[in-house]
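[09:14] KT: can someone run the structure on this one? pasting the chain below
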Amino acid sequence: MKTKTYKTLLLAFILGGWAAIPSFACTGVTFVAEDGSRILARTTDWAGAVLSTHYVIVPRGHQHVGLTPKGNNGLRFVSKYGYVAIAVENEDFMIEGLNEKGLSAGLFFFPGFGHYLPYEERYAAQSLSDMQLVGWILANYSSVQEVIDNFDQIRVVGLSPEIQTVHWRIADKSGRQVVLEIVDGKPHFFENKLGVITNAPGFEWHQTNLSNYVNLSGGTVHNKHFGHGVSVDAIGAGSGLLGLPGDPTPASRFVRAAFFSTTAPRTQTGHETVLLSFHILNSFDIPLGAERTRIEMPKGLISATQCTTSADLTNGKFYFRTCWNQEIRCIDLREIRFDKVKFQAHPLDKDRVQRIEYLKF
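[09:31] RB: done, structure tokens below
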């Protein structure tokens, strides 16, 4: 995949809807298997246009150059660790990834609430775009604490005022997970014990909002006695979650993700838990009609949920599927010689065709 020129890249992001608030909606969940395997899964939802989406293999020793509003004049760094990631529009713009040490990082849209430091020419050598932060994290660190301890070495900047901001989920094999939000130029790391993330508003607001749903629980409620010999039974299973919000807004998705992930059965292995994560995230697929009118719908896109990923931090495996091909594909990081492999980028789908098994009798 060839890297787009700076001006072409900005134009693609702005015209493709990255500046529009309703277009980008992602949901992240976390699971732990009985054998201790830690799984981080997510959707990547984008209703603005068909994303140019690739998986990239990044070796140790790979050289990175940070983008700033002035071009390729930002932070330069070399990968200490090899990693695998999903990139959009540009091979350096990674939205989700996993490195060989089991550190995971991903970005989520955060419009209207994030505020980066303004770009200053004198700090160009410390600056990189928000879309490159995932790569910087995966290339350099093996734990959440290392990221926090070294974050003051860099300045995260936006490429254009027209492009909305993001926030990040970072997790390691120990089970620690944080959400990073940059507000008024200051980084804030929030411990994410719940393991759920969506979009704006801020992470603390979403956790507080869960208090509005303390009445919900998994399972089916018992019949209700109203007196005078009148008793009412629940209609259908799952009535414990009656009132769970079902719309695609970030607040509602956060609540659903919190309940679906915490009430899910605990599976035995990392492999089984990865499969579970994909099933759970089926509930967060966003039809195009939920975010776009028929007139606005882009050609060639069949779902706002363009890809879904699941990373097994414990066993070093990175899985993905797309809206065009629901077949789950896996990259086993343990089979990659990161000291030998070359940097490479490949489309998530060689051809956008759903594979169907035709049964014969």
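[09:33] KT: thanks! The chain has a mean pLDDT of 92.
[09:34] RB: yep, looked fine to me
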